[in-house]
Amino acid sequence: MSEPVLETRELRRSFTQGDVTISVLRGVDLAVQPGEIVALLGPSGSGKSTLLQAVGLLEGGFEGSIRINGKQAEALDTDGRTDLRREALGFVYQFHHLLPDFTAIENVTLPQLIRGTDPEPAKERAIALLTALGLGHRLSHRPAKLSGGEQQRVAVARALANRPPLILADEPTGNLDEHTANVVLAEFLSLVREEGSAALVATHNERLALKMDRVIRLHEGRLEALGPKPD
């Protein structure tokens, strides 16, 4: 078996409120293989977002080991973590966080330009991704002119723009109605598989989780393996 694209060992995170210490992550061991789509189940407040923030290298204060795409994250300085995040990770959040003054195609092109891609191939890549998500006719629209489902599709395209080996998605359909959530998730999973990326997808929706390759649950700060999805 190839090396995991994401691996954590004894990952811990605690918060102090006054005289009380709250342990959110209590020794999380996790491995995600290249191309694997893993659902991370848990109710609101269970620590799913905290775990994604840890493996997304978005904040400090964690104990334990995080290895991403063959690199030991805790051994890196701030610039090294930024570079690793930029080269190895794509993010999709519950709220799209698109740049409001930029069109759909510009929102997907910009991360590529920051990465150093030339403008023309960056634009071509953006068009291809957006078209694959059914937005070929909405390329020049700004977020305010797009529906909630369309905005989230743009966010998915943006996350995949730089071909990251790992996508981290935090309740990516949580802000959508049930029908739109089903459609967007199906398109997300299809495109991630087509691109060959792995994904760790946090959700509280067990029905949506079963559409992924493997399901794990965060319970009392530790992961419980629920195994592959049933046939």
From TrEMBL:
The keyword Transport is annotated on this UniProt entry: yes
Entry-linked Gene3D superfamilies: P-loop containing nucleotide triphosphate hydrolases (3.40.50.300)
Domain annotation ABC transporter: ranges: 6-231
KW Hydrolase (keyword) present: yes
Molecular functions (GO terms): ATP binding; ATP hydrolysis activity; transmembrane transporter activity
Gene Ontology CC, one term: plasma membrane
Family annotation (Pfam families): ABC_tran (PF00005)
Alphabetized CDD domains for the sequence: ABC_MJ0796_LolCDE_FtsE
EC code(s) of this entry: 3.6.3.-
Domain of life: Bacteria
Listed InterPro entries: AAA+_ATPase, ABC_transporter-like_ATP-bd, ABC_transporter-like_CS, ABC_transpr_LolD-like, MacB-like_ATP-bd, P-loop_NTPase
Keywords, sorted A to Z: ATP-binding, Cell inner membrane, Cell membrane, Hydrolase, Lipoprotein, Membrane, Nucleotide-binding, Transport
GO biological process: lipoprotein localization to outer membrane; protein localization to outer membrane
PANTHER family, per database record: IMPORT ATP-BINDING PROTEIN (PTHR24220), LIPOPROTEIN-RELEASING SYSTEM ATP-BINDING PROTEIN LOLD (PTHR24220:SF689)
Similarity field: Belongs to the ABC transporter superfamily. Macrolide exporter (TC 3.A.1.122) family.
UniProt name for this protein: Lipoprotein-releasing system ATP-binding protein
Record organism: Sphingomonas kaistensis
